[in-house]
């Protein structure tokens, strides 16, 4: 295998990392989803360390609160014991799980050593089991994920690791910067490794892969250790590595197109610094290390144990006195073995055990300690599953009056409460759908020049939609210009070290209003700046395809405008419109140039401004993607309506409500927006689909597919602000004078639902007592927790609303409307739900899970210490690894877990056969079958409820 092939074999271990501006919830262990959940967590723990389950005391508290059913815990414990051949010891094992394991660490103390005479059989068993006398095996386990420079630091008391990581971060953060710094690195267009060679003045003639190969040879890494060595280096800064991996694998990522990078480049940089710092060290390759270890095995082990904090003071003192290291290690080994034995002795005492030999007890307890996290987790999940199955299958069919309006919300868990409140406020029905509504678009907002890809990260947007004004906007342009000028002044002052202090003092009040106002008086400050902020004019979207003539005209206008600007700045002479057109035709179409133009200007237009035949072809292709054909409009609307089961009995008003989070000073704000829209607000998808649905020719074509939307039905888009539960409406100008009073009543009722939703929010959000507190949290830039976001998510439901309408789920469920009777035999609709919403739901759920169980490794730590770097992520202090997960404020409250980490409990109301078809057809098949979610099928036709466990669907309830 080549070096690249070896890198490809290990790179999926790196967590996914999207830039902070479109931060998308993701499973940090996505590279392990090809394994069964339990196996994947075991492997991840062996690589990353830390925890993958909560502490046993956490689960014990839930058990005592009644959240974990004792009968379910007993069943799961019995199953594990039977697999390990220990079923006869159930009573003892249960007592261990409930009483001993939570106290296990307290049994391990030096004081306990004198309390018992050591059982020799137990000591022998522990010695063989934990290989303390197999020094090489012990050393390999301790250094499994250490690089050569880390081991060198430990053995010779150096700090090369800190310097190497600092040098790496210094370079990659500057290279990957996305216009945060005013002093940008030059030559980045050459690529990461080529730029690095200039940065270090490193005259090396080959590429990064060749350098990595040569570095490994110089470090004398054996062939069988190459993959492990590559992985070691990737995992040292896995946040940065994850971002580099992400951008290198996304051909549409603009910064990657401009400044290419790759994991191989990154590894080359790391190996460069490792070689540089080890050059004059006593040990600078693995062959020398192996020789040194062979001659000093006991000393090496002691140094590593000391580094890891495992060596008590008396052994450290003995090392400093330069006593015999073999004797010290042997003494330490006996000390540890005795501690291990005493833990078993004390556990036996606690259990009142007088019958089971201590060796057998040690085996039972070893099994329980290995399995307890999974036993507890599954028991908690099974308890919820049983409870919700009973609730979802106990509903009584009832006649409802015809709805005056319907409201479709994103299936985001934060919509559950407001849907419930809307349904209770009048004759209204609600639906749930993935936030992008099955309409993937590349959206260009008014007055912006870049695209937002509003779809799940795994879905490619094939249609471009521009937001364009439909009214004059002089006031907007005036305020926009003033704001740009102010920002420019502030930016210049902030970044120019020579700015006189008097200038800062002269305009310091601008900073002061923001700094103090948004902290001490957020509401007033928000009102003040909202008056200064330019208000966007009324807009519409480009939803129709451009003709070939229009495309030709727009591309020509683009090119001639650029040429005109360049020529004007060159100042050589004035050119007529005809002459500029002739220059464009020469550059793009290869026509003869009828005027004189310097070769320097020609080359500048070609090379710097890309006025070329290639760009002409590219721009035409991009413009051909603008809008939708009639067939596409009909397809997307039909897919949406059938996906949620809204295919008949349309009310007069169909509202489709996107969502977004609004808060100040929150780098993770995009994670609180719509995950199905690439971490963006989902309003554009909502407006676009409503515009399509209100089109007469689309409705006419939809009739041929069996869906008749009455002429009187109007689709109205809205936006749900999840931070405050407010709902704003758009494009209401399509309503007639007769319709407006009716819609005002709907708005009134929905606003009342918003108020009631905020009342529920107050109960859960800390330090919040009134509705005003909720509003202020979204404006106060000192507020670390403007909302709980998706914390608490635990389940997903795909089925009719009638099955869940009576259940209060406290914003813990993703609720996707689905009617299996509308689906075809191939389960295409359910497959689409699996391919989009379910995948995004699993990403969200797993990121919250791992950020909760071990925030230091899988999360982001406290927001208090965060600095935004390069507009791509956050790190701690002046430099650190990029933080891959959620901050503690998103999942913890006052040092305790607020989020309850469980896998996504996914309930599907459909025949088992149809669900099986969807699983087989879905790209989510892998993590469904590997139990990264917990699938539950409510098959009312067969009158059975199934749970997928251990590779099979098992009946867990018979329905009457």
Give a written overview of the molecule.
The chain is of the alpha/beta class. Helix 9 runs antiparallel to helix 15 and helix 11 (208-218) packs parallel to helix 15 (263-278). The model is unreliable at 485-516 (pLDDT under 50).
Concise synopsis of the structure shown:
The protein is of the alpha/beta class and 960 residues long. 51% of the residues lie in helices and 10% in strands. Helix 9 (160-175) packs antiparallel against helix 15, helix 11 (208-218) packs parallel to helix 15 and helix 16 packs across helix 17 (297-307).
Backbone CA Rg: 32 Å
- Biggest sheet, spatial arrangement of strands: 11-10-16-17-18-19
Average pLDDT works out at 86
Principal-axes shape call: globular
Discrete helix count: 39
Strand content: 5-15%
Q: From the helix content, strand content and strand pairing, which structural class follows? A: alpha/beta
Strand elements, count: 19
Note the main sheet.
6 strands, mixed
The percent range for helix content is 40-55%
């Amino acid at each position: 295998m080549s070096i690249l092939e070896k890198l490809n074999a290990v790179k999926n271990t790196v967590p996914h990392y999207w830039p902070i501006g479109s931060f998308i919830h993701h499973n940090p262990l996505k590279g392990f989803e090809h394994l069964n959940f339990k196996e994947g967590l075991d492997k991840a723990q062996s690589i990353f360390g830390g925890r993958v389950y909560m502490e046993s005391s956490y689960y014990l508290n839930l058990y005592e609160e009644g959240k974990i059913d004792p009968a379910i815990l007993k069943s799961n414990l019995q199953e594990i014991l039977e697999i390990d051949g220990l079923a006869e010891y159930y009573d003892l094992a249960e007592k261990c799980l409930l009483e001993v394991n939570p106290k296990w660490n307290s049994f391990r103390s030096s004081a306990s050593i004198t309390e018992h005479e050591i059982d020799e059989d137990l000591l022998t068993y522990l010695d063989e089991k934990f290989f303390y006398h197999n020094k090489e095996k012990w050393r390999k386990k301790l250094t499994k994920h250490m690089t050569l420079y880390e081991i060198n630091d430990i053995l010779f008391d150096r700090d090369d690791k800190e310097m190497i990581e600092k040098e790496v971060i210094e370079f990659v953060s500057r290279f990957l910067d996305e216009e945060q710094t005013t002093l940008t690195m030059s030559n980045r267009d050459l690529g990461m490794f080529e730029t690095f060679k200039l940065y270090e003045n490193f005259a090396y003639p080959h590429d990064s892969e060749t350098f990595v190969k040569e570095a490994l040879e110089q470090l004398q890494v054996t062939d069988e250790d190459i993959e492990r060595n590559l992985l070691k280096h990737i995992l040292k800064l896995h946040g940065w590595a994850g971002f580099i991996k992400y951008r290198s694998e996304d051909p549409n990522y603009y910064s990657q197109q401009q400044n290419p990078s790759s994991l191989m480049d990154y590894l080359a940089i790391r190996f460069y610094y490792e070689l540089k710092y080890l050059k004059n060290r006593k040990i600078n390759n693995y062959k020398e290390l192996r020789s040194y270890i062979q001659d000093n095995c006991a000393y090496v082990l002691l140094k590593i144990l000391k580094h890891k904090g495992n060596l008590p003071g008396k052994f450290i003192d003995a090392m400093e006195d330069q006593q015999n290291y073999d004797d010290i290690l042997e003494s330490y080994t006996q000390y540890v073995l005795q501690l291990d034995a005493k833990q078993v002795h004390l556990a036996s005492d606690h259990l009142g055990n007088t019958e089971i030999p201590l060796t057998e007890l040690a085996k039972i307890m070893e099994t329980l300690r290995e399995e307890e996290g999974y036993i507890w987790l599954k028991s908690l999940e099974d308890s919820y599953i049983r409870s919700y199955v009973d609730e979802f299958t106990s509903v009584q069919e009832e006649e409802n009056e015809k709805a005056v309006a319907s409201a479709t919300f994103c299936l985001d868990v934060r919509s559950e409460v407001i849907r419930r409140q809307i349904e209770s406020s009048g004759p209204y029905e609600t639906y749930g759908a993935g936030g992008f509504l099955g309409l993937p678009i590349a959206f260009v907002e008014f007055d912006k020049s870049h695209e937002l890809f509003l779809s799940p990260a795994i879905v490619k947007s094939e249609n471009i939609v521009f937001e364009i004004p439909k009214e004059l906007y002089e006031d907007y342009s005036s305020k926009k210009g003033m704001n740009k000028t102010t920002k420019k002044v502030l930016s210049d002052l902030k970044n120019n070290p020579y700015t006189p202090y008097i200038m800062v003092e002269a305009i310091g009040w601008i900073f002061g209003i923001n700094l103090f106002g948004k902290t001490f008086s957020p509401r007033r400050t928000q009102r003040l700046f909202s008056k200064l902020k330019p208000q966007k004019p009324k807009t519409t979207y480009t939803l129709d395809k451009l003709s070939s003539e229009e495309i030709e005209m727009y591309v020509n206008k683009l090119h001639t405008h650029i040429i005109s600007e360049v020529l004007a700045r060159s100042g050589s002479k004035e050119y007529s419109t005809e002459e500029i057109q002739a220059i464009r035709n020469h550059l793009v179409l290869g026509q003869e140039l009828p005027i004189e133009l310097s070769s320097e200007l020609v080359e500048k237009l070609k090379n710097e401004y890309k006025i070329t035949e290639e760009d002409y072809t590219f721009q035409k292709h991009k413009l051909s993607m603008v809008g939708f054909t009639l067939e596409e409009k009909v397809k997307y609307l039909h897919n949406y309506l059938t996906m949620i089961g809204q295919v008949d009995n349309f009310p007069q008003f169909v509202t489709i409500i996107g969502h977004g989070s609004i808060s100040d000073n929150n780098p993770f704000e995009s994670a609180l927006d719509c995950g199905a829209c690439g971490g963006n607000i989902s309003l554009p998808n909502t407006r676009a689909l409503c515009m399509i649905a209100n089109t007469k020719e689309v409705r006419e074509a939809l009739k041929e597919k069996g869906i008749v939307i009455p002429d009187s039905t109007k689709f109205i888009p809205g936006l749900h602000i999840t931070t405050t539960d407010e709902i704003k409406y758009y494009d209401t100008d399509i309503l007639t004078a007769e319709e407006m009073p009716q819609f005002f009543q709907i708005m009134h009722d929905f606003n009342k639902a918003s108020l009631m939703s905020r009342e529920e929010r107050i109960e859960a959000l800390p330090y919040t007592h009134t509705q005003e507190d909720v509003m202020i949290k979204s404006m106060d830039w000192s507020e670390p927790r403007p909302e709980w976001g998706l914390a608490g998510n635990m389940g997903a439901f795909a089925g009719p609303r009638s099955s869940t309408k009576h259940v209060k789920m406290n914003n813990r469920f993703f609720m996707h409307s689905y009617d299996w009777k509308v689906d075809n035999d191939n389960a295409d609709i359910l497959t689409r739900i699996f391919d989009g919403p379910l995948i995004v739901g699993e990403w969200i759920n797993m990121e919250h899970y791992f950020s909760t169980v071990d925030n230091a490794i899988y999360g982001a730590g406290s927001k208090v210490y965060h600095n935004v770097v390069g507009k791509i992520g956050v790190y701690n202090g002046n430099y650190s690894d990029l933080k891959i997960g959620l901050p503690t404020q998103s999942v913890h409250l006052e040092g305790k877990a607020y989020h309850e980490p469980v896998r996504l409990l996914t309930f599907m109301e459909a025949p088992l056969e149809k669900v099986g078809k969807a699983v087989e057809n879905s790209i989510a098949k892998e993590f469904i079958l590997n139990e990264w979610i917990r699938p539950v099928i409510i098959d009312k036709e067969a009158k059975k409820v199934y749970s997928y466990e251990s590779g099979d669907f098992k009946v867990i309830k018979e329905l009457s």
